[in-house]
Amino acid sequence: MAFADSDPAGRAYDGSAPAAVKILVAGGFGVGKTTLVGAVSEVAPLRTEEYLTVASVGVDDVEGVERKSTTTVAMDFGRIMINPQLVVYLFGTPGQERFWFMWNDLVHGALGAVVIADTRRLESSFASIDFFESRGIPFVIGVNCFHGRMERGEREIREALDLGPEVPMVMGDMRQRAVGRDLLLALAEHLIAANSVT
Question: Where are the extended beta strands (E) located within the chain?
Fold first, then answer.
């Protein structure tokens, strides 16, 4: 892998390995986790998607996402090179309850998380929020406005998800790279703020 000789600030690169930051992308089934990782990753993302089959009928709840034909069975993986000294690795978690055991492995070493919410099925985000709150991992909420439609306002979403004002929230279409960028910047600012308090 080739790196530039200097970063955007003009500092010379000394050839050492870049610092790595691990971020999880979580949320319920079909909320847009794979889409977000694919939108922001600067390399072709690794996906572990399989087709939904009749074997999942009665096991996976597809209410509200009936047209979904594939599902993540392990994780999604993407990478963003911030500069020669810093690389961000994105790990998308599987959304179905039968794959939640993967979360316990994926969370190791994570600095923070993005929880994707679908306003049509806000309850699908409860498990992810509980998971990160119980482990003290800072997170931000990305409200996926499918096709640019905002079904609910921020105040209503915060009340439904029982979120305080300190948890950043970004609303937008997760297919758009700019929305993903804004989410990751919001998380970075949230992490900096959390560390300055402690």
Answer: 19-27, 46-51, 70-83, 86-92, 110-117, 139-144, 169-172
The gap from C-alpha 67 to its chain's centroid, in whole angstroms, comes to 22
> What is the number of H-type helices and E-type strands within the chain?
5, 7
Tokens of 180: 């993903």
Using an 8 Å Cβ cutoff, are 90 and 33 in contact? Answer: no
Per-residue pLDDT 10s for the chain (198 aa) are 333 444 555 555 566 777 888 999 999 888 888 889 989 988 776 665 555 445 455 555 555 555 555 555 456 888 898 888 889 999 988 766 656 666 777 788 899 999 999 888 888 889 999 999 999 999 999 999 876 677 788 999 999 999 999 999 999 999 999 999 999 999 999 998 887 765
DSSP 8-state code for residue 12: B
- Report the candidate in 143, 139, 138 with the shortest Cα–Cα distance to residue 156: 143
Q: How far, in Å, are 31, 41, 49, 103, 104 from residue 35 at the CA level? A: 9, 10, 12, 19, 22
Q: Are strands 139-144 and 169-172 parallel, antiparallel or unpaired?
A: parallel
pTM as predicted: 0.75
Integer Cα distance of 48 and 33 in angstroms: 12
DSSP SS3 for 188: helix
